[in-house]
Amino acid sequence: MCRHLAYLGDEERLGTLLVQPEHSLYRQSWAPRRQRHGTVNADGFGVGWYADGDPVPARYRRTGPVWGDQSFADLARVVGTRALLAAVRDATVAGADGEAAAAPFAAGPWLFSHNGAVTGWPGALAPLVSGLPPAELLSLEARCDSAFVWALVLHRLHAGDTEGQALADTVVEVAEAAPGSRLNLLLTDGRTITATAWGDTLWYLIEPGRRVLVASEPHDDDPLWREVPDRTLLTANRTDVLLTPLKDMSDDKASAQHKEPRT
Length: 263
Hints:
Strand order of the largest sheet: 3-2-4-1-10-9-11
Structural class: alpha+beta
Distance between the termini: 34 Å
Function: Catalyzes the hydrolysis of the gamma-glutamyl amide bond of hercynyl-gamma-L-glutamyl-L-cysteine sulfoxide to produce hercynylcysteine sulfoxide, a step in the biosynthesis pathway of ergothioneine.
Largest sheet: 7 strands, antiparallel
CATH class: Alpha Beta
Low-confidence stretches: 250-258
GO molecular function: hydrolase activity, acting on carbon-nitrogen (but not peptide) bonds, in linear amides
Number of strands: 14
Protein name: Gamma-glutamyl-hercynylcysteine sulfoxide hydrolase
Helix content: 10-25%
Keywords: Glutamine amidotransferase, Hydrolase
CATH architecture: 4-Layer Sandwich
CATH topology: Glutamine Phosphoribosylpyrophosphate, subunit 1, domain 1
């Protein structure tokens, strides 16, 4: 399993978001409070962030535990951003991919992370391989389940799907091919955050007009944190959070949507 977090809002230092909170993502690498599968997230980490005026995010990823990386400590202390996605990794199975398997994955304006595991990997997803062009398969950053799920999402984004539809259709497709998979996906383009809760915890906090955070678990005890129901698609910007049951994605979406009130 893994833990991940996305942020949109007023400019903050990376350390303010990822290190300083009492139960920060940094601390969740060895002491998560709500992780249901696995106990330590020390198999890699990464952060992607956006600079004003540049739609393509920068990334810093490493294999090994975040607490042992002095370069990350320096970055977190001085780099500021209005949008980021970060993750700490607990590898489902051993592999040689190292840094390449650490989220966030990236393409164009997007950053992506997968908190969970695909059951029966890789055999269970073999039928889905035919849906990807050979060039996209050969371009996979890593050979882990998360990288393949990202390839499925990215293929849909490049085909013109919205972020929400790309995540929702991918989750349903993978869950049908590999029942029992845990598929909490997190995606941002620096302006919006899209996520799925499917098999593990997902929380959000919004202060309309100031900030929105979406994370595997709260990084502090702020009473504004709310848990996302399982099998739900979340879409958010700095003003609103929208929750849509994934089981209703193919039904009347207008009747399925629930919009969080502004405060």
